[in-house]
Amino acid sequence: MANGTVKVEVDGHIAIMTVARPEKLNALDLGMLQALAQAADEVEANAQVRVAILTGEGKGFSAGGDIKAWGGMRPEEFGHAWVRHGHRIFERLATLRVPLIAALNGHALGGGLELAGVADIRIAEEQIKIGLPETGLGMVPGWSGTQRLVKRFGAQVVRRMALGGEIFTAEEARLLGMVDAITATGNAVAAARDYAARIASRGPAALEVAKLMIASANGEDNGTAVEALGSILVAKTGDLKEGVASFSEKRPAQFKGEW
What we know:
alpha/beta; 2 domains; 6-stranded mixed beta sheet; 9 strands
């Protein structure tokens, strides 16, 4: 368990991260953001994990950022301690080395939809609703709602939510490409487990590289993707082994160009 507000369970090759503040519909505060970062680190460090699931405890996936957590912040504190901090943590989740499935067991609104947006696959229960209601509160989406969500869902869909305040049903979201599958109420995690088992049966190295390549093609942090792919490739070469050995033995390297 990473933290009391974000639970981590590992079952074979599948990790499940559960946002656990059900009495507040899993609305996020600073402590929960930090717990999400710890959960991501825990999953990333476990070499047995090949796929992860992100879900919420109780009846909600996440109602977004807790207004009580940020409503009284000074502007500079809001911008740095809340928006930028949350943005970094969501980026951490989006760039997990393993595929991530969001099991939407309840509404995903505002920051909750931005949280769902970090996943590679989204499976929604039939009763859920999703949207970006921030402008109705006089604010804007700040955890990549106007950035990652535009890249993944399309600008016009995000305009309808952020500018028009439209709230979509699960079926509407599926037709718009925002969720990949719909399941019965109470079945999101089970359906996500089934899909996770399908992913976990495939080559783990190929999964990691394919995820990086797709992110790069979609314009999501091209620099990180290119450097990660290049580093993985070079790390498997004989040249790197020789370079490390020569450094340890304090002698000139004898590179042979071995791949």
